[in-house]
């Protein structure tokens, strides 16, 4: 990642009733998807508390980029729930219809991670993957918690 890309990349939450919005912002679509994954993690615990020790491969495909994003977030939620893990680092290869990723994390340690909520799934609410006029990418949706 170049210094310019690193300066742009970030994640954030946005309010939405009883649920929570996650948004990833990056210089590329892949980077926005990675940052959105960090935003998902931050719904549960601060990402910096997670030791990225074990890598898990995740793949998704869809002909619609917004559905692909939603599939990505739902795949992460599934992996967190079934493996009882939290992820703090992501690397994504993305094209128009497929996503191949590695998510690194560790098993949940309730004493250290103090999980706040359990995300249930990504929704169509506020779903968007778009490039802004300045070239920056945004990937966002609301997550049921």
Describe, in short, the structure shown.
The chain has 145 residues and is an alpha+beta fold.
Describe the protein's topology.
Blueprint: H1 3-8, E1 10-16, E2 19-26, H2 29-44, E3 54-61, H3 65-83, E4 85-94, E5 98-107, H4 110-113, E6 121-122, E7 128-131, E8 137-144
Antiparallel strand pairs: 1-2, 2-8, 3-5, 4-5, 6-8, 7-8
Helix pairs in contact: 2-3
Question: Unreliable segments (pLDDT under 50, ≥5 consecutive)?
Answer: none
For CATH, the homologous superfamily is named as Archease domain
Q: What is the CATH architecture descriptor? A: 3-Layer(bab) Sandwich
Q: Give the helix level as a range of percent.
A: 25-40%
Rg measurement, Å: 14 Å
SSE order, one letter for each helix or strand: HEEHEHEEHEEE
Bulk shape? globular
Structure description:
- The protein has 145 residues and is α+β, with helices and mostly antiparallel strands.
- It has a single domain (3-144), classed as Archease domain (Archease, Possible Chaperone, Chain: A, domain 1), CATH 3.55.10.
- Helix content is 31%, strand content 39%.
- Strand 4 and strand 5 form a beta hairpin.
- The longest helix has 19 residues, at 65-83.
């Amino acid at each position: 990642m170049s210094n310019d890309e690193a300066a742009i990349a970030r994640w954030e939450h946005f309010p939405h009733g009883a649920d929570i919005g996650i948004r990833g912002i990056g210089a590329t679509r892949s980077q926005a998807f990675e940052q959105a994954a960090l935003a998902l993690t931050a719904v549960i615990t601060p990402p910096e508390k997670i030791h990225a020790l074990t890598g898990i491969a995740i793949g998704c495909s869809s002909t619609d980029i917004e559905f692909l994003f939603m599939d990505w977030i739902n795949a992460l939620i599934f992996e967190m729930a079934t493996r009882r893990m939290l992820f703090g680092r992501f690397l994504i290869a993305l094209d128009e219809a497929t996503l191949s990723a590695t998510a690194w994390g560790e098993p949940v340690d309730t004493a250290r991670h103090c999980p706040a909520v359990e995300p249930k799934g990504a929704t169509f609410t506020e779903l968007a993957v778009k490039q802004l006029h300045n070239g920056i990418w945004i990937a966002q949706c609301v997550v049921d918690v």
